Amino acid sequence: MYIVMVAPECAPVAHAGGLGDVVFGLSRELEIRGHAVEIILPKYDCLRYEHIWGLTLDYRDLWVPWFKGAIHCSVWFGHVHGRKCFFIEPHSQDRFFERGTLYGAADDTMRFAFFSKATLEFMLKANKRPDVIHCHGWPTGLVPVLLYEIYKFHGMPNQRVCYTIHDFKHQGLDGERVLWATNLGRPEYYFHHDRLRDTFNPRALNFLKAGIVYSNFVTTVSRGYAWEARHTELAFGLGHTLYLHDGKFGGVRNGVDYDMWNPEIDPLIPHRYNIESLERKYWNKEALRNRLWLRKDYKPLIAYVGRLDSQKGVHLVRHALFYALANGAQFVVLGPSPDPSINGEFWRLKRDMNDHPDCHLELRFDAELAHLVYAGADMIVVPSNFEPCGLVQMVALKYGTIPIVRAVGGLTETVFDRDFSERPPEQRNGYVFHQADAAGIDSALRRAIGLWYAYPQDFRGLMLNGMRCDYSWHHPGQDYVNVYEYIRHN
Ligand code: ADP
Which residues of the chain have pLDDT under 50? Predict the structure, then answer.
């Protein structure tokens, strides 16, 4: 099959979060399976050029219709760690992709509406006729609209669209001007609530809704999150739209890149290990303790790795820290906080805990230290309020670190409680709690710490169960191929 990914991110060249990892990891998996994959991205000024090999001008004069005129673009081509990437560079006073960041500009919706239009115009003019166009996130929500309302009639009648929603919270809203800019026109048609009209604001068009309504198939990044989007308020107003399009909506879990996250080959940890040499994991625990000035005592080490923001359940992270210290465990936090009030709170906590021999807070992003934390910790807490998929728990499992998670989104699909899961014992790999409160997380921490002290052999068995889990791209890759095949033939 010939697949074109249209995305605002691709790791590591344009990377802000999980979406970028998915675009890279899935493309790689599809290529391993023999499919032809190309990725189309904006040519941001902040691209990490050191990750692009052989950047060359591929299409010199692409004129993209925009309002009543057209914008002149160049399209570049290069390899990003083996992936084939095209970069669209508009030459206009709007300087759409010259903002120093990927997102966060006041005109983000117009920037990505332009990108969507330019992508289709490029495919049309460069004679690219993929079997499937796979679009990612709200920024590409207009691609299927433009395909089915315009480009289908200009030589692209057979293309199919798969649309992946990475997060329902960010939806992309704008007014009528987007229709005139992209030459869709006909506001009375598109503002219909069965099409693009936003649920809460009748004067706004909703890009994410556009993607759901117009694509041939819609996925989100785990089955758990797909269920929550359908049945709870986590679709942020799009629940009814999903209900109407239920037959073409499903969850496909994200994969982990085991080339990067694998204790057997990880160059960023001092002692490599696998299932057969698990005792070497304890050497990493010693290394972590040395690095963070923690005392060497017979105690389990519990960690939190991740952004400190309200989505991640920070109040429970704080609570877990005190619970651990009061119950014979050590605690490490590794995470930056984008939110000033949470940031202030954790810096105060860090100062209070400064000399504590069993606790360390590192309030920043540190990729290298993250590897050592996964390898050195005994347990990791993920008490999220919502979690579309979550990478942390899957990485922890690979490193034999027991995840203690709240039962939300992708966490429900990847972590199975040692005591209460309905799965066979050999598939149980961690601890799960339900309520987002102190009693909830305490119940799981108590059981985990209790097992560590009282039944070390059983704890080790649980670690091995986790290390045997396969959360690579292998299964999700096949799921996506099935989706592509389905939409090609229906
Ligand atoms: P989200 O995408 O919502 O931030 P995920 O669990 O999907 O959360 O992915 C987070 C990724 O970022 C994981 O690979 C994790 O290891 C990494 N990460 C999170 N916090 C840090 C940090 N402070 N330092 C280094 N890596 C981090």
Answer: none
* Residue 204 within any structural domain of the chain: yes
Q: Residue 12 belongs to a domain with what CATH number?
A: 3.40.50.2000
pLDDT at 17: 84
- Whether 336 lines ligand 1, by a CB cut-off of 6 Å, is yes
The neighbouring-strand residues paired with 330 are: 301
Reading the block at residue 311, the tokens are 């989505």
The string of DSSP codes covering 216-260 is: SEEEES-HHHHHHHHHSGGGTT-HHHHHHTGGGEEE------TTT
CB 208 within 8 A of CB 168: yes
Q: Which of 63, 65, 67, 64 is nearest to 180 (CA)?
A: 67
Ligand 1 centroid, distance to 397 Cα (angstroms) = 15
pLDDT at 338: 86
Q: Whose CA is nearest to atom 9 of ligand 1?
A: 391
Query: Is-cis flag, bond preceding 90, omega within 30?
Result: no
Does residue 322 sit in the same domain as residue 460?
A: yes
Ligand 1 atom nearest the C-alpha of 367 is 25
Element (H, E) at 365: none
Per-residue CA distances from 241 to 237, 238, 337, 472, 483 (Å): 8, 5, 33, 31, 20
pLDDT of residue 468: 98
List the structure tokens of 243: 């209900």
pTM over 0.90: yes
351 domain-assigned:
yes
Q: Among positive and negative, which fits the CA dihedral 280, 286, 287, 289?
A: positive
User: How many domains, in total, are found in the chain?
Assistant: 2
How many whole angstroms from 345 Cα to the centroid of ligand 1? 20
Letter string b/e over residues 22-43, b meaning 16 or more CB atoms within 10 A of that residue's CB: bbbbbbbbbbeeebebbbbbbb
**261: in domain:** no
* Residues forming a β-bridge with 173: 206
Q: Please say whether the beta carbons of 118 and 52 come within 8 A.
A: no
- Under a CB-based contact definition with an 8 Å cutoff, are residues 331 and 347 in contact? no
Task: Read off the tokens for 29.
Answer: 């998996």
Q: Do residues 203 and 187 touch, judged by C-beta distance below 8 A? A: no
pLDDT given for residue 293 in this prediction? 96
Q: How many helices (H) and strands (E) does the chain have?
A: 17, 17
Per the structure, the complete domain to which residue 41 belongs is given by: 2-255+474-488
